[in-house]
Design a protein that fits this description.
It is built from two helices and 15 strands. The protein is mainly beta. The chain has one domain. A hairpin with a 4-residue loop joins strand 13 and strand 14. It starts with a helix and ends in an 8-residue tail after the last helix.
């Protein structure tokens, strides 16, 4: 029984400490990975829910909601600022993590073909343990400090983005402070590790189709790197099919439907093909996006932006 408890405890603990969740809809929620990513053309609101390792008891569930709005657009030199907020909720086994973020970015033209953006995110994270789910026969387990079941830590992230209408290159550092919560759980895993994320992509326009390969590289510890290669095919701004390959023996698929010029829904599915994995641990993801219409004065301006 104690062995099962340890497994139940440390699998989600490892999930929470090692890296930020990476969504199959990572481009639509890209401000979560890089606070400098923003659009001068539209306000954006999204809700994303991910059920990871479906079928596994205590499996992680992640909820992300975000809002972005461009402000202070200067039509003369095409500079603009962007403000936004993110709400992230993670539940994995007995652990809960809630993060509230406030984002700001500033964007300007390097030349008539390239835009540069800087962004930062100020974060406040609460990590808690649900002690009501513990086995009463293990009430004196030394791993858990039951006198304190929640911690609140500040943190911040930084981002840089270069982009034009068909290309982008982004670099960001997240969880910079690497907060430790050993006084909540006595383990070497009880630490929020920082990560460096590289994100780049390109669009190819062919008739009514847009073909978009994207690369995501997330290094979240000295010996752990996530590599993701994605390919999306969009038809006439109505329907998008996507496929991603990950270096942890997983494949992601996506289906995005534009219900209108303002409302989009996306479904993502991830499965592991390695024979070493415990089955079933597939993941499901649902994304709802609402975007405002383009402001008329911006239509008359020269906009150079991938997003």
């Amino acid at each position: 029984m104690r062995v099962l408890f340890i497994i139940y405890l440390f699998l989600p603990l490892s999930f929470l400490s090692q890296q930020k969740p990476v969504f199959s809809n990572f481009l639509e929620t890209s401000v979560y990975l890089n606070p400098s990513i923003a659009s001068p053309l539209k306000s954006n609101f999204f809700i994303n829910h991910k059920i990871q390792w479906s079928g596994f008891i205590g499996a992680p569930r992640v909820f992300l909601a975000g809002f972005q709005k461009p402000i202070f657009f200067n039509s003369t030199n095409s500079t603009f600022s962007n403000i936004g907020t993110l709400f992230l909720s993670e539940k994995a086994g007995v652990f809960n993590s809630t993060t509230l973020s406030v984002n700001y970015s500033y964007s300007f033209l390097c030349n008539d073909r390239l835009r540069c953006s800087f962004g930062t995110s100020l974060n406040l994270q609460q990590i808690s343990v649900d002690v009501t789910t513990f086995n009463p026969h293990q009430s004196n387990d030394p791993l858990i400090n039951k006198s304190r079941t929640a911690l609140i830590n500040p943190d911040f992230s930084l981002g840089l983005l270069f982009s034009n209408k068909n290309n982008f290159f982004g670099l960001s550092a997240t969880n910079v402070l690497e907060n430790n919560w050993k006084n909540l759980v006595d383990s070497q895993l009880s630490k929020t590790e920082s990560s460096i994320t590289l994100l780049l992509g390109r669009k190819f326009h062919i008739s009514n189709f847009v073909f978009s390969p994207t690369l995501l590289l997330n290094r979240y510890s000295k010996n752990n790197t996530l590599l993701l290669l994605a390919i999306d095919l969009e038809y006439n701004n109505l329907l998008t099919l996507g496929l991603s390959l990950k270096n942890d023996d997983a494949i992601q698929s996506r289906l995005k439907v534009n219900l209108s010029s303002k409302i989009m829904i996306t479904y993502g599915y991830e499965f592991y093909y390695s024979s070493n994995e415990i089955n079933p641990i597939n993941s499901h993801e649902f994304l709802l996006t609402f975007r405002s219409s383009i402001v008329e004065k911006l239509k008359r301006s020269t906009i150079i932006s991938y997003f």
